[in-house]
Write a structure and sequence with these properties.
Belongs to the binding-protein-dependent transport system permease family. CysTW subfamily. It is a multi-pass membrane protein. It comes from Agrobacterium albertimagni AOL15. The chain has about 300 residues and is mostly helical. The chain has a domain at about 45-120 and about 170-295: MetI-like fold. It has helices at about 25-45, 60, 65-100, 105-115, 125-135, 140-145, 160-185, 190-195, 200-230, 235-240, 245-255, 265-295.
């Protein structure tokens, strides 16, 4: 059998193998490019264009008009209120299930429900709250006819600031439970035992040990809940229509195709929302990284 000699100057080169292990992420990469990166770039470019395609700052400067600034301020207040209440209530529920004395079997159904409820939004959520707390909703009618409590006379209106905030809590609280549960699981038993050996009470343990460790996770989750509420569009439009002047509704009015609409001002409104939510998500990522260092 003859073998082919290989000269020293012509050494065999290793074959370049296709990175097949990257094929699995190609659909995800295509999805991100088509439905996240490209629309975002379209919004950013459109915010600095005139209808004829020329460059301008007028659209961005238009965001500082009193009516648009008022819409941003209302959106920020609703997002902040729902984020704070969602964090407080969600943390209490998660702590009661994970660290409290509640039966262990409650945890799995609670987390399952939270996973579903955190993604329940839009028209179905708006209809559910209108059917429950609307002017002729089930709970509204029951309180008025059976207990003599008229929510309208008490000043409650579902199509208002607090009405939209309460509606947002339906998905804000479950999202808080899902995110804070791993942080609560990360509290080591040795920390509590060490605090007890040193004479610390339960209140001192939470104030001096547990709460400082959980604080970055809580603040980071609050930033994420703020961004989640600030970017909610379908629920606000389906619930309040045009009765509440918030940014998503103002944005919808500019891009829906009416002759009075200004699509490029709509791009600027969306660009402003991207900036606000980007800052909130950046805070979440930074605080989340700090909390993970403690949990390792």
């Amino acid at each position: 059998m003859s073998t082919e000699a290989v000269s020293p100057g012509h050494q065999a080169r290793p074959r370049t193998k296709l990175p097949l292990h990257w094929l699995g992420v190609l659909p995800f990469a295509a999805f991100v490019i088509l439905f996240l990166i490209m629309p975002t770039m379209k919004i950013v470019i459109g915010a600095f264009q005139r209808p004829d395609g020329s460059f301008t700052f007028d659209n961005v400067l238009g965001l500082f008009t009193p009516s648009i600034m008022a819409a941003y301020w209302i959106s920020i207040k609703i997002s902040l209120a729902s984020a704070i209440l969602g964090c407080l209530i969600g943390f209490g529920v998660a702590a009661a299930v994970i660290l409290g004395g509640l039966p262990a079997w409650i945890r799995s159904p609670l987390l399952t429900f939270s996973g579903v409820a955190s993604n329940f939004a839009g028209v179905p959520l708006a209809f559910a709250f209108l059917a429950t707390l609307g002017p002729v909703g089930m709970l509204t009618v029951f309180l008025k006819t059976q207990l003599g409590i008229d929510l309208r006379l008490l000043g409650f209106n579902l199509l208002s600031f607090w009405g939209l905030t309460i509606t947002y809590l339906f998905f804000q609280i479950p999202l808080m439970i899902l995110i804070i549960a791993p942080a609560l699981d990360g509290l080591k038993r040795e920390w509590r035992e060490a605090a007890s050996i040193l004479g610390a009470t339960n209140a001192q343990y939470w104030r001096l040990v547990a709460f400082p460790i959980l604080l970055p996770s809580i603040l980071g989750t609050m930033a994420l809940l703020f961004a989640n509420a600030f970017g909610a569009v379908a629920t606000a439009i389906a619930l309040t229509g045009s009765s509440l002047n918030i940014v998503p509704i103002l944005l919808f009015a500019q891009i829906r195709g009416d002759v009075l609409g200004d699509p490029h001002l709509g791009y600027a409104l969306a660009f402003g929302m991207i900036v606000v939510t980007g800052i909130a998500n950046g805070l979440y990522i930074w605080l989340r990284a700090r909390s993970e260092r403690w949990m390792k």
